[in-house]
C-alpha cells in the first residue's frame, strides 16, 4: 500500500515541481515530469532521513518541501538533458 501512496504523491509532486521549476518555455513531456516527481519523492525521503529526519505522527511538511525541491531539480535536469527547454537555447544564441 505504501508504494501506491508514493506513486500518487510522486505524480502530484512532479506537477508541483514543474510549477516551481524556472522557465515557462519548458516542453518536457508530462510522463517525464511525472517520473521526475516519483523520483523526487523517493530521493526526498532518502535525503530527509539521511539528514536526521524521522517519522512523525502527522504530515511531515519538511519532508514534502524537500521532495518538491528535488522534483523541481529533476524536472530542470530532464528538460536540460533532453534538449527540450527552448528558453535555454534562445538565450545561448544571443
TrEMBL record:
PANTHER family: UPF0410 PROTEIN YMGE. The chain crosses the membrane at residues 6-23, 30-49, 61-81. Belongs to the UPF0410 family. It comes from the Bacteria. This is GlsB/YeaQ/YmgE family stress response membrane protein. It is found in: Cell membrane. It is a multi-pass membrane protein. Coiled coil: none annotated. It comes from Nocardioides deserti. Keywords: Cell membrane, Membrane, Transmembrane, Transmembrane helix. The lineage of its organism: Bacteria, Bacillati, Actinomycetota, Actinomycetes, Propionibacteriales. InterPro entries: Transgly_assoc.
Amino acid at each position: 500500500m505504501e508504494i501506491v501512496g508514493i506513486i500518487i504523491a510522486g505524480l502530484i509532486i512532479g506537477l508541483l515541481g514543474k510549477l516551481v521549476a524556472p522557465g515557462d518555455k519548458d516542453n518536457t513531456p508530462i510522463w517525464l515530469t511525472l517520473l521526475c516527481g516519483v523520483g523526487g519523492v523517493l530521493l526526498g525521503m532518502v535525503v530527509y532521513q539521511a539528514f536526521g529526519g524521522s517519522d512523525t505522527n502527522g504530515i511531515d511538511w519538511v519532508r514534502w518541501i524537500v521532495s518538491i525541491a528535488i522534483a523541481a531539480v529533476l524536472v530542470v535536469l530532464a528538460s536540460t538533458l533532453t534538449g527540450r527547454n527552448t528558453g535555454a537555447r534562445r538565450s545561448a544564441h544571443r
